[in-house]
Design brief:
heterodimer; A: about 110 residues; mainly alpha; B: mainly alpha; two-stranded antiparallel ribbon; 4 strands; CPA3_antiporter_subunitC (chain A); cell membrane (chain A); membrane (chain A); transmembrane helix (chain A)
Chain lengths: ~110, ~950
């Protein structure tokens, strides 16, 4: 499991970083989304992987039977914030497109 | 304690009055309030004098964060009392003076407010019993001084002078802050009394020298010592009352106040002697010579102030106890005669219309009273017997003769002391004789006459003080001076005699030499001084030019060079640098540490592997398609998101899965709404250059490196045994203290509620920013028109006159109906998520997004107009209400005596619904819910509305086309 998830994080991050370095605004926004998936999974996996151990308390269960709730709380916050940044970036992107007339990240078309 | 409350009142009155002044408006009220406040503070200061009886210090502590050593400590001893009197007394006189000096058409409310606030900050410095508090008020004086120097902000010189003063003094203040932190670190306390008692330990500490240098940087910049003296002459573009108050009597004295305050702790070392004494000596000489060559009255006074401050600094630096006494005495004397001289210069400027020495002269014929007063004050500055300046100067000579650093130093100190005094005689003569004596001229810019009585009164009172102290020193200044000296020096206070006549002592001869030499030089070189614009020899070295050079270097040259080195106007290289720097940081951290990269993980579930094969393919697909096929890329990204969502379910994180799924939906909708405004990009549109191919390959290598690194790191992190974290605490206390079974939700709304509070604030801010940006949104002209499909369909329907059924009118009719029916169900589901959130996966975030999804689905299926006719959504109100609810829930706990955001929980029986967990955290979660609903729908609706605004944009485009 660990190996699969680690590879998954790697692939997501690599695709994201590659897009981040592209010249078109839409590519960057998709790249940021992919990177945020990778980072969320990364933070989440720090607490260790457990199946069937939801951190929802049941009667008479031992603490060791639950997975670590802390990374989950962190990631929950991160998910919402990454949505907010995506929306903000999208609007900046649209405004820049309206102002400069193209969708290059520097507002100057010409370089691929 | 009446004294304690008096001190507290003295500190708070000026600040309160400063706010009130801004509210009353009107010149009369503002000035009267300022004068009354200064008078009240003066009375309070006089009133607390008995508390200082017998060398006691008044001390009043208001605890703030005792664990960090941060308290509001008011501490008044004999030394600070002397300063209190100076600040309040001269503040009062300056207030009266300013009322008549300032132009009559100026409402003065801002001026009075700033002056009062400055007075309060100055009192704050003097009364601070905690060094951090001291630094705080110190920086406040820098800020108010900045605002006061730039009071006439129409003038470029005022703005420039203000900026320079702020940069120098506030920069010094930052150094002082660092120095005080170090001092606090050495002593282990920020309390002034503790620090003053730990002198031995501080001087022996290894950090003594850096700390001393930092503290001195603060003190010397404030007191305009060489090489930071240049801001003071520039600050003379301030209104004259400000110069009289801030730049002669009080603010510039803050530096020497600090030196004397920490005298018992810092002085007595070689570093102190050479740094403080040397700076003082250089400044004394430099200021005195520069003052002689100035043509502007206020510049003469500014440089003479620098020189006198240098004198005081040198006295402090010599390290003898008598030197400290002389310094305190001279601070008081200088404040009295210099403030009156500034006011006299202001009166001359006010009545004769110029401050240029070359255009003045003979004014005693027109303003005899002012002339008399100004001559008395300048005589005090020159050190003429029977005036206060003479006494402190004699004390200075006595100290200079006995530095006990070897005969050479003694001789040099004595010679320099005489030389500087001779210079001060010269510039005093230039001021007094050059302005008031000589024949009456007929070419003054304005016909001079005596200034109003209330403008003369403050000058007169200060001149009277000079005479009184000069004639009856022991009676007038003796006891407070002794108390001040005692509170600085303690048991080491030397015996000193304050008398006009000490017999034929060496200091008396030195005084005589200085006076005679000064007079001779003035008479001989009078014409030479009047003809010069700059200093001989030193004229080329200008602190001001150096300052500007450094400033240009820091704000223009260096950034430009950096920008040249890293081509940072362009985003791609910037991002590349960020990615590389982050990889480098991670790489160096990982380098050498042996990561436990064994293959001992839990076994691989083939289904999970297959799932991620799909996920990875989606991610790579998105990366390749994002340029030419945006919709496909968006869908593929969604696929990757869904796979990570499933992983969350798989790996026991149902809350995450729910939230991720919902956020995924909303993100997709947001981006879909934006897609329409992006330009078409078709494969093969631009030729693929070799450079572009190279760049792609390079980026691919970097991306692969990052991915590999992150994968390794993640793998190592997962195999690493989890350290004992605070998670156990959360698991154990979630139900007993948070009243909820869903630990993640309890952490968010209860244990770490404060974080969530910040998060919803961010969300609200982002939503408002999106809203604001879109209000002024100007789409590119070519994407303003309706999309090609809509246009084709409309053209087709128009061509066959509605013979076939109209697609445009019935657009999405069936889905619209379904969504319309489903919307209440979705909202209900959102509420369900919200209510169960505390015990089962769900919660405010998920619920909020669900409800806004319902709304957006309606918008999409039915169109914005249809929805808005039937439904009034006010996202801004949702956001406001949510934030208010969250904050007031937090504040509610304060009402019950608990810290902010403490929650209370109880399970209660509710009719119809059965037993429900009711915690105040639930109310907080409701706030979160409202903010999320408001923010999400605000963003979505604002985006959706852009298409509705289209006709107007088209009209505008047409108009601009016609104009062309």
């Amino acid at each position: 499991m660990e190996l699969v998830l680690a590879l998954a994080i790697g692939v997501l991050a690599a695709s994201g970083v590659w897009l981040l370095l592209r010249p078109r605004t839409f590519q960057v926004i998709i790249g940021l989304t992919l990177i945020s998936y990778a980072v969320n999974l990364f933070i989440f996996c720090i607490g260790g992987l457990r199946t069937g151990a939801d951190p929802v308390l049941r009667e008479g269960a031992d603490i060791a039977q639950y997975t670590d709730p802390l990374p989950q709380a962190l990631v929950l916050t991160a998910i919402v914030i990454s949505f907010a940044t995506t929306a903000l970036f999208l609007v900046v992107l649209l405004a820049s497109r309206g102002l400069t007339g193209n969708d290059h990240v520097d507002g100057k078309d010409g370089t691929p | 304690m009446p004294y304690d409350s008096a001190a507290l009142a003295m500190l708070s009155l000026p600040f309160l009055a400063s706010v009130v002044v801004l509210m009353v408006r009107g010149r009369q009220w503002a000035t009267w309030l300022m004068i009354a406040t200064a008078a009240a503070c003066l009375l309070l200061a006089v009133g607390i004098y008995p508390a200082m009886d017998g060398g006691h210090a008044l001390r009043h502590v208001i605890h703030w964060v005792p664990s960090l050593g941060l308290d509001l400590v008011l501490r008044v001893d004999g030394f600070s009392w002397l300063f209190l009197m100076l600040i309040c007394g001269i503040g009062l006189l300056v207030g009266v003076y300013a009322r008549y000096y300032m132009p009559p058409d100026d409402p003065l409310d801002r001026f009075c407010a700033l002056l009062l606030a400055f007075m309060g900050s100055m009192l704050g410095i003097v009364m601070s019993g905690n060094v951090i508090q001291l630094v705080f008020f110190w920086e406040l004086t820098s800020i108010f001084s900045f605002l006061l120097i730039g009071y006439w902000n129409q003038g470029a010189s005022a703005r420039e002078g203000a900026r320079m003063a702020l940069i120098v003094t506030a920069g010094g203040g930052l150094c002082l802050f660092a120095g005080m932190m170090l001092l606090g670190h050495i002593v282990g306390s920020y309390d002034l009394d503790v620090i003053l008692a730990a002198g031995e330990r501080v001087r022996a500490d290894a950090l003594y020298t850096p700390m001393l240098v930092l503290v001195l940087l603060g003190a010397l910049t404030k007191s305009a010592q060489f090489p930071f003296h240049f801001w003071l002459p520039q600050a003379m573009s301030a209104p004259t009352p400000v110069s009289a108050f801030l730049h002669s009597a009080t603010m510039v004295k803050a530096g020497v106040f600090l030196l004397l305050r920490f005298w018992p702790v810092l002085s007595g070392t070689d570093a102190w002697f050479w740094l403080v004494g040397g700076t003082g000596l250089l400044t004394l000489l430099l200021g005195a010579t520069a003052a002689v060559f100035q043509q502007d009255l206020k510049a003469v006074l500014a440089y003479s102030t620098i020189s006198h401050l240098g004198l005081i600094t040198m006295l402090i630096g010599l390290g003898s106890t008598l030197g400290a006494v002389a310094a305190i005495f001279h601070i008081v004397n200088h404040a009295t005669f210099k403030a009156s001289l500034f006011m006299a210069a202001g009166a001359v400027d006010h009545e004769a219309g110029t401050r240029d020495l070359r255009r003045l002269g003979g004014l005693r014929h027109f303003m005899p009273i002012t002339a008399t007063l100004a001559v008395i004050a300048s005589a005090a500055m020159a050190g003429v017997p029977l005036l206060n300046g003479f006494l402190s100067k004699e004390m200075f000579f006595a100290v200079a003769l006995t530095t006990h650093r070897g005969p050479a130093v003694d001789m040099a100190a004595a010679a320099i002391a005489v030389l500087a005094s001779a210079f001060s005689v010269v510039y005093s003569l230039r001021f007094a004789v050059g302005v008031f004596f000589g024949p009456a001229r007929d070419d003054y810019p304005r016909q001079p006459h005596e200034p109003p009585r209330w403008m003369r009164l403050p000058i007169g009172l200060l001149a009277l003080a000079c005479v009184l102290v000069g004639m009856l020193p022991a009676r007038v200044i003796g006891p407070p001076l002794r108390a001040a000296a005692y509170s600085v020096l303690g048991e080491d206070t030397p015996t000193f005699s304050l008398a006009v006549w000490h017999g034929l002592t060496p200091p008396l001869f030195m005084s005589a030499i200085a006076l005679v030499a000064g007079c001779v030089v003035y008479v001989v070189l009078r014409g030479y001084f009047a003809g010069r614009e700059t200093l001989p020899l030193l004229g080329r070295f200008s602190g001001r030019r150096m300052f500007e050079w450094v400033l240009t270097l820091l704000t223009a040259t260096l950034p430009a060079a950096l920008e040249g080195a890293f081509p940072s106007r362009r985003l791609q290289p910037q991002l590349l640098l960020i990615v590389l720097a982050a990889s480098l940081a991670a790489g160096t951290a990982m380098w050498g540490s042996s990561l436990p990269l064994s293959l001992h993980g839990s076994g691989v579930d083939p289904a999970f592997a297959l799932l991620w094969l799909l996920g990875g393919a989606c991610a790579v697909g998105a990366a390749t398609q994002a340029k030419f096929h945006r919709l496909a890329a968006l869908l593929l990204t969604g696929g990757a998101g869904l796979v990570s969502c499933i992983s969350f379910v798989w790996l026991s994180a149902p809350d995450l899965a729910a939230t991720q799924l919902l956020v995924e939906v909303v993100t997709a909708i947001v981006i879909l709404l934006g897609l329409r405004w992006l330009p078409k990009r078709i494969s093969g549109m631009a030729p693929d250059t070799r450079r572009a191919r190279l760049r792609r390959h390079r980026d691919m290598v970097i991306a692969a490196g990052v991915g590999l690194g992150l994968a390794t790191l993640a793998y190592a992190a997962m195999l690493h045994p989890v350290a004992d974290s605070i998670s156990h605490f959360f698991l154990e206390r979630a139900y007993t203290e948070g009243g909820g079974h869903n630990v993640v939700n309890v952490i968010l709304v209860d244990f770490r509620g404060f974080d969530t509070m910040g998060e919803i604030s961010v969300l609200a801010i982002v939503a408002l920013t999106v809203f604001a940006l879109l209000r002024r949104f100007r789409p590119a002209i070519e994407s303003v028109d309706a999309p090609a499909q809509q246009r084709l369909q409309a053209a087709f329907e128009a061509s066959d006159n509605g013979a076939t059924t109209s697609v445009v009118a019935d657009y999405l009719r069936i889905p619209g109906l379904i969504v319309q029916l489903m919307a209440p169900v979705i909202v209900l589901f959102g509420l369900h998520l919200f209510l169960r959130g505390h015990d089962l996966p769900g919660g405010g975030f998920a619920a909020g997004i669900t409800v806004s999804v319902a709304l957006v689905l309606l918008y999409m299926a039915r169109g914005a107009r249809w929805v808005e006719v039937r439904l009034r959504v006010a996202p801004l109100r949702w956001i406001g209400a949510g934030l208010l609810l969250a904050v007031s829930t937090g504040l509610g706990s304060i009402a019950f005596g608990y810290p902010f955001l403490t929650s209370h929980s109880r399970h209660a029986e509710v009719p119809l619904l059965g037993e429900l967990p009711l915690a105040t955290a639930m109310l907080f979660d409701l706030g979160v819910f409202c903010v999320v609903v408001g923010a999400t729908s605000l963003m979505l609706v604002a985006l959706a509305h852009q298409s509705l605004r289209r006709p107007r944009v088209l009209e505008m485009a047409a108009e601009s086309g016609e104009e062309r």
